[in-house]
């Protein structure tokens, strides 16, 4: 692969950078999922969309942090077996 001619650089990117890229790509999907599932449940409590968006945003950030840990853990398991 021209982007990573050295095998060690490729493994380093796969272990550290790729989970972050996956997480950024999944953020809109998780946001929409949480907004569609939790929005109608939370909205009657606050009677305004601003706090609902804030709560869903925080929930999305927490979910993304958990996904980063999941993706990194899975990546370490996969790429440590290959070594």
Molecular structure report:
The chain is mainly α. The chain contains two helices and no strands. The longest helix has 40 residues, at 7-46. The protein is elongated and about 55 Å long.
SSE arrangement:
Elements: H1 7-46, H2 49-81
Helix pairs in contact: 1-2
Sum up the structure in keywords:
83 residues
User: Ranges with pLDDT <50 over ≥5 residues?
Assistant: none
Shape: elongated
Into which percentage range does the β-strand content fall? under 5%
What is the element string, with H for helices and E for strands?
HH
Structural class: mainly alpha
**Could you estimate the helical fraction of the residues in percent?**
over 70%
Write down the Rg: 18 Å
For the termini, the CA-CA separation is 19 Å
Number of H/I helices:
2
The mean pLDDT is: 83
Offer a concise description of the structure.
This protein is mostly helical. It has two helices and no strands.
């Amino acid at each position: 692969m021209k982007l990573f001619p050295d095998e060690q650089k490729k493994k380093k990117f796969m272990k550290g950078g790729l989970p972050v890229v996956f997480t950024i790509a999944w953020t809109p999907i998780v946001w929409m999922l949480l907004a569609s599932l939790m929005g109608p449940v939370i909205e009657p409590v606050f009677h305004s969309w601003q706090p609902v968006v804030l709560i869903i945003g925080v929930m999305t950030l927490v979910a993304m942090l958990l996904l980063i840990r999941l993706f990194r853990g899975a990546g370490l398991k996969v790429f440590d077996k290959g070594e």
